[in-house]
């Protein structure tokens, strides 16, 4: 059975997620921006935290962990490559590793780019992937540490997942991401429709995360650098997709 997944707004624009297996009672938290909202959600649901999955070391994804550990005793899981700058880990994982939450397999992907050592967690039985600041709704994370080649390779891994996969990313940046995406593909009808829906949702304070991978493939410019139409709009026909991605990322950095 798929896990029950709960989206928890944190800080000003972060998201954390709880994934709960009813049969075993196990509950995993993905990232810990701040303790208060997460502890409140666990109490409201009557869930006990069994695992914490950390995607990367940035403060707005880990600083809530000490407060959570005052009330729960979960197994903390994070990237082996990032262990020197993450909170203490009970399990250090790398690309290709697998573990289980309530009997459901969790696959680890290295999605370096935003940081080196950033990982994503794919739960095939729940058709869910937790991508934090790698693949985001209508965007991708700024390249603070990695290279465009690394991020393009990371996004390409995620793009190859089944299109019905739900993408749980780390921030509410979707509306501004949409405005930028329209500068790359102003005639993309699905993108235009999506940005209109996003504006309605945000006006009602409705989260735009998670999103469907199929929708990201159709509208997210950072996944579309290989497409002739996108390359033509940038004057880069026939260029290597990683180069096209780098140009899109550079434009977004100045947007």
Write a brief structural summary.
The protein has helices at residues 35-45, 59-62, 65-69, 148-159, 174-184, 189-203, 213-219, 228-233, 241-254, and strands at residues 4-10, 14-20, 27-30, 51-53, 75-79, 91-93, 98-101, 104-110, 119-123, 128-132, 135-136, 139-140, 166-169, 211-212.
Q: Can you walk through the features of this model?
A:
- There is one protein chain.
- With 255 residues, the chain is of the alpha/beta class.
- The protein has a single domain (4-254), classed as 4-Layer Sandwich (Metallo-beta-lactamase, Chain A), CATH 3.60.15.10.
- It contains 9 helices and 14 strands.
- It has helices at 35-45, 59-62, 65-69, 148-159, 174-184, 189-203, 213-219, 228-233, 241-254; strands at 4-10, 14-20, 27-30, 51-53, 75-79, 91-93, 98-101, 104-110, 119-123, 128-132, 135-136, 139-140, 166-169, 211-212.
- A 6-stranded mixed sheet has the order 1-2-3-4-5-6, with helices on one face.
- A hairpin with a 2-residue loop joins β11 (135-136) and β12.
- The chain is globular and about 55 Å long.
């Amino acid at each position: 059975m798929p896990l029950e997944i709960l989206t928890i707004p944190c800080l000003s624009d972060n998201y954390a997620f709880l994934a709960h297996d009813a049969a075993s009672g196990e509950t995993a938290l993905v990232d810990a921006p701040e303790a208060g909202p997460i502890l409140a959600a666990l109490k409201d649901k009557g869930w006990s935290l069994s695992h914490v999955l950390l995607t990367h070391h940035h403060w707005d994804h880990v600083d809530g962990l000490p407060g959570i550990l005052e009330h729960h005793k979960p197994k903390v899981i994070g990237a082996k490559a990032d262990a020197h700058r993450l909170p203490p880990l009970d399990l250090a994982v790398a690309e290709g590793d697998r573990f289980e939450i309530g009997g459901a397999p969790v696959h680890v992907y290295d999605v370096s780019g935003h940081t080196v050592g950033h990982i994503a967690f794919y739960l095939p039985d729940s058709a869910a992937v937790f991508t934090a600041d790698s693949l985001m709704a209508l965007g991708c994370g700024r390249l603070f540490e990695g290279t465009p080649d690394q991020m393009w390779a990371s996004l390409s891994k995620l793009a190859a997942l089944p299109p019905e996969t739900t993408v749980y990313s780390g921030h509410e940046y979707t509306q501004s991401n949409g405005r930028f995406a329209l500068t790359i593909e102003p005639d993309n009808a699905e993108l235009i429709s999506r940005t209109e829906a996003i504006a309605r949702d945000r006006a009602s304070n409705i989260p735009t995360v998670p999103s469907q991978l199929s929708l990201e493939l159709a509208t997210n410019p950072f996944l579309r650098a290989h497409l002739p139409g996108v390359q033509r709009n940038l004057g880069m026909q026939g260029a290597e997709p990683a180069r096209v991605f780098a140009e899109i990322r550079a434009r977004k950095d100045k947007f």
